Amino acid sequence: MTSRLFSPLTLRSLSLKNRIAVSPMCQYSAGDGMANDWHLVHLGKFAQGGAGLIFTEAVAVNRNGRITHGDLGIWSDEHAAALARITAFLRAHGSVPAIQLGHAGRKASMQRPWEGNAALTETEFAKGEMAWRTVAPSPLPMAEGWLVPHEMTAQDIADTVRDFVEAARRAHWAGFDVAEIHAAHGYLLASFLSPHSNKRTDAYGGSREGRAKALFEVVEAVRAEWPEDKPLFVRISSVDGTPDGWNLDDSVWLAGELKARGVDVIDCSSGGIAGPATAGRTPPPPGFQVPYAERIKRETGILTQAVGLITEAVQAEEILAESSADIIAIGREALSDPNWPVHAADTLGDDKAFATWPKQYGWWLNKRRESTGRY
Fold it and tell me: What GO molecular function terms would the record report (predicted)?
């Protein structure tokens, strides 16, 4: 009997061979937004390892939407062409290529994490990596010492919606079969949603509906451009984790609204509105964000993707068996073990004679097992 983790999932015209996704993970290794050999090998490993769905890192829809000088972008046809060879490789090895489209907002123009993970300093300027103009719903810096962002006008918002649409058009041309709009972790669209960062009094602020207006405009415009037979995901911070921030009740409401606008899956993350999304004050427990995915799925009927310290095959299987989510996303666990999916298949009894491995590897490994009894 096939496990739930290795059961196919149909999304519009798309069929995932299993329920394992590799989360977007920024590599900060591009030059002026261009994908290179690092990105090909980084993402290609996960296809060889058997993941059904593989996301790029957040790909900036315009140059000022990058988080750092090393971020990927898709603001020109040349950027799309550089990504096309990656999608071809992923598809050739049985994985579905997915792109996360984003804009960093007030968290743009910052250091790479290993260089400080904060606002740019004289050290970066000396290397020619200058700061750039940042934008946000309100002129509130992310933290002390960060750039004060420009408060976006209605025209700025309309221009950004257009940039998302153009990015989606290029992503389709480049061969991506899933698009995800990044509305989490305090980046631009998340900062519109949250009352912590959105203090506007016009149509894009105030009420929950007003604060969601920018995201709705992006989703509606992208859904109209993105092919009808291809699924659209939205990643959200299910909770901001601040007393004055976005909460889970808000996310349940938002998921229902996004479902009505043609979104297929809600990718349920959390945090990041007032600092790095990956820096928690206390160590979180395994699967700490799964309850968010479960409640959103249960109360709205939309499919959800669970992410966050899901590290074991049995743990992932239980999440699916309990109908807490429909897709299991692994991030840093995939960095630690790019072959996590094929190892999980063995653990759950879904792999016979290394059949889920690439044949170039499976043949060798099966012969070793036959002759020595070792995995």
Answer: FMN binding; NADP binding; NADPH dehydrogenase activity
Contact 135, 188 (CB under 8 A): yes
Give the start-to-end residue ranges of the domains of the chain. 9-332, 339-375
Answer whether 0.85 is exceeded by the pTM: yes
Q: Which of 187, 204, 292, 361 is catalytic?
A: 187
Does residue 320 contact residue 19 with C-beta atoms inside 8 Å? yes
Please list the alpha-helical segments (H only) found in the chain. Answer: 37-48, 77-92, 122-126, 154-173, 188-193, 208-225, 248-260, 290-300, 313-321, 332-336, 340-347, 359-372
What is the architecture, at CATH level 2, of domain 9-332?
Alpha-Beta Barrel (3.20)
User: What is the total residue count of the chain?
Assistant: 375
User: Do the Cβ atoms of 276 and 237 come closer than 8 Å?
Assistant: no
375 is an active site residue = no
Bridge partners, residue 16, by sequence: 9
3-state secondary structure of 104: coil
